[in-house]
Amino acid sequence: MFNKSKKGFTLVELLVVIAILAILTTVSIVGYTTFIAKAQLSNDQAFITQANLTLQAAAIPNPFQSASQAINELNRNGFAGKYNTYSSGFHYAYSLENNKMYLIDNHNAIIFPAEQVELSTLWGLYNDNRTSYVDGITKYVAMANITNDAHFNEVFASGAHTIDLNGCFIDVDATNAQITASNGIVISGATAGEGANSNYTLIDYAINAGNYPDFYNQYATLENGTYVVEGMIFTKFVHIHGSADVKFVDCIFYDEARFQYGDSGSGYGSFAFDNCKFINIGTNSEIWAITVLSNQKVSVKNCTFTGLRTRGAFNVQPCVDGAEVEIIGCTFDGTANDYPLIRFVSGDGSVKSFAMKDCTFLGLGKAASILGYRTADTTVTASTTWSFSNNKVASSITTDMYVGEVSTATQGLYDAFVAGIK
User: Is residue 40 situated within a structural domain?
Assistant: First the structure.
């Protein structure tokens, strides 16, 4: 028999193999990381390119007068919720003078488009957090309500800054006299500039079956048999039962603050809105700004509907016959989804009358139409008396987007709406 000696790898050989594997792994990781970084940068550049094409088209023939107008135009065209950069530590910012969005890297240098632009001329997008602040940028558009004291105190502790609230509000403890906030509500934390209002009270209050009396007692004044709620900001679901008449004056409805009076029953009182703002409604759920139920008399005057994120302004769904709706002097700024701005839905009831006067439709965004129905629900307005007069529709809204799915059943509504355009 023969003895065969078995020879293994030496320690040196094993170490050499491990070292080679480590080098290959490092090279692979570096290559993969570089690939990911390039892909993220490419995505950011694509976002900027598409945004700028949208802005340039929208500014013809009327240039934007504020940074918030540009942001709202982007929101109406599907950019809402997409302002976080793909590249870590980078930022988007807007130039009102150039009407362009720019990409800023983590060294605060403008890298796309490759143009010489001073940081001080740009508007940053402030999301109520530290990471959205850019050293060197002193002007910001609020992308949300500003309520975080810690972040605000850290980034705006000193120096002059300008904040376009874009319809949002600022409510923080500290106040820097050099900070000017406009185009929104200043509760505390800044100086109210032109277009800002500082007379509102912030409440975070959901009205439900257990505490309607508390709502009336705490926030409303009884005037001539009507509960009047004035100068407040709602951020949660406002749902009222009972037969009382309720009116909201100079109030703001924000975030999840959709409004609904009653449910599928009858016998509810009237409700009214006067000079109220509905801003960024539906941030976390698919909701309408106002739902009309039962046989109420509904009056909405001089109100604005801006940044509707999931559905439209009105969902008219009477569950018994007799609803009377009037919308006067209101401004609609489109939606970020494909629902009509005003939708009629059969809830086993019908609309008695619907009047719209002196209203302005600035754009539709992703909205399917100004007026519309849920499929096959035209019976809800079969016997409705329509009244449209002195309304203004932007040229970007074509006639086929006035009423969704115009047919024999909806032709009367379409004709009445067209006749009421000035």
Answer: no
